[in-house]
Structures are given as C-alpha cells and as structure tokens.
Design brief:
The complex is a heterodimer.
Chain A: H1 6-34, H2 36-43, H3 47-50, H4 56-68, H5 71-84, H6 90-103, H7 107-120, H8 122-126, H9 128-137
Helix pairs in contact in A: 4-5, 5-6, 6-7, 6-9
Chain B: H1 2-23, H2 39-48, H3 56-72, H4 77-87, H5 97-106, H6 114-123
Classes of the chains: A mainly alpha, B mainly alpha.
Chain lengths: 161, 126
C-alpha cells in the first residue's frame, strides 16, 4: 500500500474542506444580513422589555387560547408559558396559575393552584377574587369563564319546614 | 485535465458550503460575531408590534425564524400557527382568516367563526 503524497492530500481533501467551510460562513452571513432589520429592531427595544421578547410567543399563544380555546389548549399553552417565565416575573406567574385554576375541574386542584399563586406573588392574595374575576371575564368559553365555586360565598337559602 | 477537475471540486465544495450555510444545516454562523437576539425573540418582536414593513429578504428571514420556533415549540403547534396566521406574520400583517379557521377547527376550539377569530386576534396581543 502506498501513502498518497502530501500535496495530493492537500489538493483533494484539505482545499475542498476549506472551500466548504468558507462557503458555509458566506451562506450564514447572507442569512444574518437578511434578518438584520428584525435584529436591529429587537436590539433597539429598551432593556427590561428586551429580556421579555423571547417570552412573547408563549404569552400570545396563551392569551389566544384563553380567549376561546379548549380547556386542553389552555392548559397546554399555560404550561409552556409557566415553564418559560422566570421566578422574577412573579405577577405573571401568579396570573398564569390563577388561569390554570379557573379551568381546573377539580375543587382540590383549584385550591392547590390558588394557594400556589398566593405563594408566588403575595400581593395577589390581598385581592384574589378581583384578580381572578378579571381573568375569567376575559375568557369567552367554558370552563374558566366563571369564578370557581371556591369564591362563591354563602349558601342558597334552605326553605324551613 | 487534472487541474480542471481540482478546480471543479473546490467550486462544488464552496457551493455546497454556501447552501448548507443558508439552510443553517451546520453551525457556520457561530464563527460570525454573535447577535443579541434569538429566533424566539425576533418572532416575539414581530408579534408585539404593529404591522411589519419587511422587504422580501427580511420576510424570508422571518419565515426561517418562524420555522425554527415551530420546530422547537413544546406546546400545540397548531395554536402557534393560528397566532401567526391571525397576526399575518407571513402575509404583510394581513390576517389569514381561512387558514386560521382551519387551524381553529383542527384544535377543536368551541368557536371558529370570523367574529370569534377577530376576538382572539385582538385579545391575544401581548
């Protein structure tokens, strides 16, 4: 077996590989130039807002599902959202948990989620009913478009004998 | 003859490289200086704002970003596509009502008529 001379390896292996890599960089640069308008626009957004841009697709889908989506879609979209929300976004996390509670059909599950929302953002606890009512008012489909029974105080009058 | 074959090989390799770079098949872009934004952030920006005035090339780049987000979406992909259709991200900001209705039916949402889709469009804005 004869070993190919170095020059042959260089010509037929190394040079084409270098050409392939350079071509790849040129292709990637073309893509970068094409998206520069959106890149620049996104970079021009003020800093606190810019950090939340990556969350907006999940927020938008969750909002869309909340308006008129099925319970399954609402739960799936809220899961995507809550998985992406950082701990620092406590009010948004609490609101997401309250929406989850509103579509949950199990009273114990609802109570657990509401309690979790309270723990996530204690300021929500002070006016829980109002916050939840604002959320349920935004939903046009059942379940989740009414306050959970958990919040409906009192008992229907029981007629006496 | 030998020289011509070598030049043809090098040109073919370079062309293949450009193609792979354009399609993002290999991480050639990592050699370039990093940008602040990700496909998810750029799609987020597009969903956040008003009508987008993008050139043909920029729309193609947004389409690539949408493809990337769709490929990694952990929730219901039709729900994401429904939002994209309602916001007209691939159609100069004009909502794609017919496609949105189809996606809505696929998702088995309770109402998929035009007023319902308009309500979803208006109220889903982040």
């Amino acid at each position: 077996m004869t070993v190919p001379p170095l020059r042959t390896v260089l010509d037929w292996v190394v040079v084409p590989l270098v050409a392939l890599s350079l071509g790849g960089v040129v292709g990637a640069a073309c893509v970068r130039v094409q998206r520069s308008a959106l890149d620049k626009a996104a970079a021009a957004v003020p800093e606190p807002e810019r950090r939340t841009l990556a969350l907006l697709p999940a927020v938008t889908v969750a909002n869309a599902a909340w308006v008129l989506g099925s319970a399954t879609s609402v739960q799936k979209s809220l899961k995507v959202l809550i998985d992406g929300l950082p701990e620092s976004e406590a009010p948004a996390r609490a609101r997401t948990l309250l929406r989850y509670a509103a579509v949950d059909q199990n009273p114990e599950g609802q109570a657990a989620l509401i309690s979790q929302a309270c723990a996530t953002d204690p300021s929500v606890c002070d006016h829980l009913k109002e916050v939840l009512k604002a959320e349920t008012d935004r939903r046009y489909a059942a379940p989740g478009n009414h306050l959970p029974l958990f919040f409906l105080g009192g008992h229907p009058p029981i007629p006496g004998p | 003859m030998h020289r011509r074959a070598l030049i043809a090989t090098v040109v073919a390799a370079a062309a293949l490289g450009v193609l792979l770079g354009l399609r993002g098949a290999f991480p050639f872009g990592k050699i370039l200086p990093a940008t602040d934004s990700t496909p998810l952030a750029r799609v987020g920006y597009a969903l956040r704002g008003g009508p987008l005035s993008l050139s043909g090339r920029e729309r193609a780049a947004l389409q690539a970003d949408l493809d990337s987000v769709r490929a990694h979406w952990s929730g219901e992909v039709p729900a994401f596509e429904l939002v994209v259709a309602l916001r007209g991200l691939t159609t100069h900001g004009e909502p794609e009502w017919t496609r949105a209705a189809e996606l809505c039916h696929t998702l088995r949402w309770p109402r998929c008529d035009r007023p319902a889709l308009e309500a979803i469009r208006e109220r889903s804005r982040p």
